[in-house]
Write a structure and sequence with these properties.
Number of helices: 7
Distance between the termini: 54 Å
Oligomer: single chain
Shape: globular
Largest sheet: 5 strands, mixed
Strand order of the largest sheet: 2-1-3-5-4
Radius of gyration: 20 Å
C-alpha cells in the first residue's frame, strides 16, 4: 500500500513529466514554422516611477511591428517562401519584475533554482494554456543613466521565455527592438555570436562574409552578434533593425534551412 509521502512523490513526478513533455512540444511546434509565430510582450515598470509608467502607457503594438516585419523579410533569404508574418501582441503591464539570474560564478544548483523561480514567475503572470506555443517576452523598462549599462537581457528556449531590459525613451524604441529581437531569437534556438569582449566572431557574427574584403568595416550587424564590427577591436550597436541581418548559422539554428 502506497504511503501518503509516496502518493505526493508520484503526483510531483507526474507533474514534472507533464511539464517537460509540454515544454518539448512547445519547442518542436514553434520550430516547425507551420503557423505564424506568436510573440507576446509584457511591459514592466523597472524603476517603479511615473515617468516610466507614462512611457509604458503610451506604447502600442505598432511600436513593435518592425520586429515581425524583420523576421518575415529575413526568412525570405533562406526559404523558398517566406514564413507567415509573426504576430506580435502587447499584453497587460506586470507589476513585479522577473527574478534576476545568479551572479557569476554561479553553481549549477543556483542556476537550476533561478530557472525554477523564473518558470514560476511566468506561470503566475500568464494564462498557462493560452500561452502555450507563444514566445513570452517580459520587457523591463528603465529611464537609464548615461554611461550606466542596464541589467543583462536573456532568452531561454526552454519555455520560450525572454527577459529584456530596455530604455523607457521614445528615441530608443528602434534600438530596443534590436535587443528584443536578439532575445526572441534566443528563445527559438539561436546562439550568441560575439566573444568575451563583445566583438562579433568571424564569420558567423558578420553580416557580410563574402562580399566585404577586407572584412572591416562592416555596414550591418548579424543580429545574434548584436554589434557592427568596425575593426578587430571596435564594434558598435546598430541603431535599428534595418541595420541588421540574420546570418546563415542563426538561420540554421532556428531551422530555416
Amino acid at each position: 500500500m502506497m504511503t501518503f509521502r509516496g502518493v505526493r512523490i508520484t503526483i510531483l513526478l507526474g507533474v514534472l513529466i507533464t511539464l517537460a513533455a509540454l515544454t518539448s512540444w512547445e519547442r518542436w511546434f514553434v520550430a516547425q514554422w507551420m503557423r505564424p509565430l506568436h510573440i507576446v510582450i509584457y511591459p514592466i515598470n523597472g524603476d517603479h516611477n511615473e515617468q516610466v509608467q507614462a512611457y509604458i502607457d503610451a506604447l502600442t503594438v505598432d511600436d513593435f511591428t518592425e520586429i515581425s516585419q524583420f523576421i518575415n523579410q529575413q526568412s525570405a533569404r533562406y526559404r523558398l517562401t517566406p514564413i507567415a508574418v509573426p504576430q506580435v501582441k502587447l499584453a497587460h503591464t506586470i507589476a513585479t519584475e522577473p527574478p534576476l539570474p545568479p551572479k557569476p560564478p554561479a553553481s549549477a544548483v543556483d542556476i537550476a533554482l533561478w530557472s525554477l523561480k523564473l518558470r514560476q514567475y511566468v506561470w503566475q503572470n500568464t494564462a498557462f494554456w493560452q500561452s502555450l506555443g507563444q514566445v513570452k517576452l517580459f520587457v523591463v523598462y528603465h529611464q537609464g543613466e548615461d554611461g550606466v549599462a542596464l541589467e543583462h537581457s536573456l532568452g531561454l528556449q526552454k519555455g520560450l521565455i525572454g527577459v529584456v531590459h530596455a530604455f523607457a525613451q521614445p528615441q530608443q524604441n528602434a534600438q530596443n527592438n534590436v535587443v528584443i529581437t536578439h532575445e526572441l531569437l534566443h528563445t527559438l534556438g539561436a546562439t550568441d555570436k560575439y566573444d568575451a569582449n563583445l566583438q562579433p566572431i568571424y564569420p558567423e557574427g558578420f553580416a557580410d562574409v563574402d562580399g566585404n574584403v577586407p572584412h572591416y568595416p562592416q555596414s550591418e550587424a548579424e543580429i545574434m552578434a548584436g554589434r557592427i564590427a568596425l575593426s578587430p577591436t571596435h564594434a558598435v550597436m546598430p541603431k535599428r533593425l534595418q541595420d541588421c541581418v540574420i546570418g546563415a548559422k542563426t538561420a540554421f539554428e532556428i531551422q530555416w534551412h
